[in-house]
Design brief:
The structure is a homodimer.
Chain A (H helix, E strand, L loop, with lengths): L3 H12 L4 E4 L16 H6 L7 E5 L3 E5 L4 H8 L5 E4 L8 H8 L5 E4 L6 H13 L3 E4 L2 H5 L12 E2 L2 H4 L3 H15 L3 E4 L2 H8 L1 E2 L11 E6 L3 E5 L6 H9 L2 E5 L3 H9 L3 E4 L6 H7 L4 E4 L3 H7 L3 H28 L7 H13 L4 E4 L4 E4 L22 E6 L1 E3 L2 E2 L2 E6 L5 H18 L2 E3 L4 H14 L9 E2 L13 E2 L18 E4 L2 E4 L3 E4 L2 E11 L2 E8 L17 H18 L5 H10 L4
Parallel strand pairs in A: 1-5, 3-4, 5-6, 8-13, 11-12, 13-14
Antiparallel strand pairs in A: 1-2, 2-3, 7-9, 8-10, 10-11, 15-18, 16-17, 17-20, 18-19, 21-28, 22-23, 24-27, 25-26, 27-28
Helix pairs in contact in A: 11-12, 14-15, 16-17
Chain lengths: ~600, ~600
């Protein structure tokens, strides 16, 4: 017996003569974490992970998700009648392959063109055409989801120069230079983080992501910013107008786009722009289908942003370290649940100035829960015991930037094997942080450095080693990243440049037993420039002790130890001024050289 | 004043109203080392390196070559009036960019369609069209090169099963399976090494490359092999006919190709097939432009080939080690030139069974010559002195496979810096050879491992870390390789598979002072298969001592030493049965643990 929500969906499909429908995890802007209104995939499937695509036919339903969520999806889909497709596993067909197989001849394939980007839409269309079928663009969830939440519409606010480091006029001018070089009259931006970065505006329409629902169209002289009613105050609207930005109603976007674009050459990214918007610009003179110029620009933090991010990591480091001290001193003395631990950490962060909230929902995973890579606790979660590991992955949003840190903490005695695994993960994290490389390298060139200690042991972690991080923006931000597989379309494999911030988070997960992940953010910077080229290196932004109770020094060679001790010395120097008494003594011990 | 040959070429260009002509380093088969008949670029420019493209207009001439040849090209082009374009250097325009800039409006761009592949031809054509110009396919060198050598036409011979490991019928059947899957009726193969591998035939039409001039067309039932007159004996022709291969005259290829292909779907690689042949198949029903299936097939050595390559490396290792012993014992005692050293090495190899000659011209580069990456000595070369380094890069062709090895030998006392550089190169070579990785990795994922010791010191070598190696075939063979830059079209970045043989040859070059390169061939093999996937590793095929006189143990950590000692122990075990007396004692010392 299938899940009720799926049965209701199937009824609606029958009414519309739809053979197969696709429900992605997406909003009209290709956001990684769509807000409640756009969580149809979660509502329909019951799978609560942040990434996944649901496809449903009359007699079958399938959900595709990646390695981070295999265990969680297995658990959450149990009994739902939905088949789990583990993406990237050998022999597992892709969404496209399975749809091509299951769509009947002359069948109708349906999806919501507002939340499916042009690129995927093209793929789906060609699958349907091969079957002599056709595409139907329809928001099916709207018909079956009775208590669908409304779209968020929180106030939009401007980021001051001391945080943004570059005015929106300067940013526009840089983008226009590229538009000119490419021969574009207009540039359509639909990605919310790109819009927020370009306009130096922030909002809070998506939990943990300080963005706001909007579309931006840029011409060589002016700009149109489509925002929700009431989101932009009169004062802000006037300020924007002075910078050549006309504020327009969000709901008018699809109607006004077509006349704005008529007879123009438009620069737009078919991997980000939704099918409905694309169909409006298709009638124009010419579309240059390229990545948004702002994608690389915002990834390269300017000097003000970089300095702020260094500062914010001291503030964030103090909060996380205070949490670690509390945790180490309370486990075994009083009952602490996963939820309580996460709450205490949040309370520590809240004491920090300019704190806006978490940059993603905190993962506090005890014991076997740690092996669920993106564990989402239910209720209070498990009660912590003075044994094994607690994995805590968390981050904060501050005016001075975004943080993302994972520490795995020994709550009690560990086995030799646990220490061996922890030390291998730590060695990989430190080795990657210590890499020195010629400019031109991509994350694919360096990912092996983090995996090497595990691969040598015949072990692996089934996720990328790192992702780009925004500045008081999304905690996951392209186009930089560390991964070894060449992903489709070069995602997260951009050339690494000074100013880019990338997470360095190898891990190890033993299903049913424990999970280990250690994550620092790395700032790329120039090391030296000589006849061989420009050498780059990383600076650890994250400043929080790594739990020495979990380290087996016997597994480390001199270079490994030197790296760890140098890092801990930096942590001590940065954080010690903020501590005193017992906490300070503990910090000294926690950052001691081994 | 420009070089005479260029002036004669310009005269011919004027007669044909040609504004700009391109002379690549190529034969009709895209061979890396075109034979004498096809060395027009060398004849015209005077640059003798193996790679380079010459372009000439009325008032300008340019030559593009890569990092291996920068120094050599600078020297050889001096006074020629030809500008050197260092490929891959910052700010250096590409051939295409420069042609686009220099071709006048409505100008005629000329090249020989028989030696330019379809892909490059398309690029050149579109450049000309943008200038409202046009393309003229003409063999200009034929008009200006009076003593042009004839094309080689040596006898073709069959490789026995104990060397090939798989019959030509089995190979054809594997290719036909792929043709069927792709929907191809025909497959056109023009790459000489692919043809030699597919047919289990060898020749000697190109120096050091045991291939023969030929074209192969494969249908689902039969095959046409176009070979030069007299190259295939009557007996061999009958043997081939039994396997469904019709031998046809090489000269008839362009005429017969078109009728064979009519109304057929043809699988062909536009990056390998020359423009003239492509224009014949263009009239057919459909062309599937894909890499030759045989490219990956021949890169993955079958068990017989792999075992033979292990054996041949003992034989080759004995020869090279004997040479090292002789060198170490004669330097400073009698005069030895670079040429004499190379000749002695060749004499050592010639004693080996089934030896067919060098796999490429030996590089024996003393002192500063070693910094010229692909140094080609003139006459006797320099006289060796009992000081500094001699870099020897050489290889052999045997029935049991192809070898390629570089050793850098201390001829006398070294400076601390020389030892430091040597040790860094050695550490990189050993670390890459010791890599363990999940199947799916490409050379781009692992290249950093070999460069890491140098990059850490702010140093680099300006060439790839390794290339694929054929089986009694070309010493440079795609599609596998180790490099960190993403090359155009993914060349040499194929997924590494068990059975592939790749060179591991980091180096360091100090212009005007010395060059260091240490090269072993690595055989990829399975390490273990578990829940995380299939882990692969390498086995050093090359078995020759690394000169311990040049190693600074203080620069090596325990892991580096363990790797070196394990390698030397293998060398000792494999080679010692072939030595006795003084040589044996020397070998024991040369392979001692440090």
């Amino acid at each position: 017996m299938a899940r009720t929500e799926i049965e209701v969906l199937r009824k609606a499909m029958r009414e519309h003569w739809i053979a197969l429908c696709v429900i992605p995890t997406a909003d009209p802007h290709g956001s990684e974490y769509p807000g409640g209104h756009f969580e149809a995939r979660k509502y329909l499937s019951g799978f609560t992970g942040s990434a996944g695509t649901l496809a449903v036919s009359a007699d079958w339903a399938g959900l595709w998700t990646d390695g981070r969520y295999f265990l969680q999806a297995e658990r959450e889909l149990f009994g739902s009648g939905i088949t789990l497709y583990k993406m990237g596993e050998e022999g597992v067909p892709s969404l496209e392959e399975e749809i091509a197989r299951r769509l009947p001849e002359r069948g109708i394939l349906a999806y919501d063109g507002t939340v499916v980007n042009r690129k995927l839409s093209q793929t789906l269309r060609s699958i349907a055409e091969k079957k002599d079928g056709r595409i139907r663009l329809i928001d099916l969830p709207e018909e079956v989801w009775e208590e669908r939440p409304a779209r968020m519409a929180k106030p939009v606010f401007a980021l001051e120069a001391c945080y943004a480091g570059e005015s929106r006029k300067e940013k526009f001018s840089r983008v226009r230079k590229i538009m000119k070089r490419e021969g574009a009259d207009l540039h359509l931006v639909t990605a919310l983080d790109d819009i927020a970065w370009l306009t130096n505006l922030r909002g809070s329409d998506i939990a943990c992501n300080p963005v706001f629902f909007s579309y931006l169209v840029l011409s060589m002289e002016e700009a149109w910013l489509f925002v929700q009613e009431g989101a932009v105050s009169g004062d802000l609207e006037r300020e924007l107008l002075e910078d050549g930005i006309r504020v327009r109603p969000y709901e008018r976007f699809f109607d006004e786009l077509s006349p704005i674009c008529r007879f123009k050459t438009v620069l737009a990214d078919s991997g980000r722009v939704n099918e409905r918007a694309w169909s409006q610009i298709r009638q124009t003179r010419c579309i240059l289908d390229k990545p948004n110029p702002s994608a690389v620009m915002k990834a390269v933090k300017n000097p003000v942003e970089a300095e702020n991010m260094k500062k914010v990591h001291v503030k964030d480091g103090v909060a996380v370290t205070r949490f670690l001290y509390w945790l180490k001193n309370n486990i075994g003395r009083r009952p602490v649940t996963e939820r309580a631990a996460a709450a205490y950490l949040e309370a520590c962060r809240e004491k920090g100035e300019h704190y806006f909230g978490p940059s993603f929902p905190t993962i506090a995973a005890f014991g076997a829960n740690g092996a669920v890579v993106h564990y989402g606790m239910e209720g209070e979660g498990d009660l912590l015991a003075p044994e094994g590991f607690l994995l805590v992955d968390s981050g904060g949003q501050y005016l001075e930037g975004t943080t993302d840190i994972t520490r795995t903490i020994a709550l009690g005695p560990l086995t030799a094997e646990q220490k061996r695994h922890f030390t291998a993960v730590l060695k990989g994290m430190l080795a990657l942080g210590d890499a020195k490389f010629l400019q031109g390298c991509r994350g694919t060139n360096l990912d092996y450095v983090a995996r090497e200690p595990l691969w040598t042991m015949g072990l692996d972690y089934q996720h990328g080693t790192g992702h780009g991080v925004g500045y008081f923006l999304n905690v996951h931000e392209g186009p930089n990243g560390f991964r070894w597989k060449l992903p489709p379309e070069g995602a997260e494999t951009a050339v690494l440049l000074p100013g880019m911030v990338t997470s360095d988070e190898p891990g190890f997960y033993l299903e049913g037993e424990y999970g280990i992940r250690i994550e620092n953010l790395l700032l790329c910077r120039e090391a030296e420039r000589n006849r061989y080229g420009r050498f780059l290196e990383f600076e650890h932004l994250t400043l929080v002790p790594v739990d020495l109770d979990a380290v087996d020094p016997g597994e480390m060679d001199e270079r490994d130890k030197k790296r760890l001790n140098a890092y801990h010395e930096r942590v001590w120097e940065a954080l010690s001024p903020s501590f005193s008494g017992e906490e300070l003594r503990w910090l000294r011990e926690a950052t001691r050289a081994i």
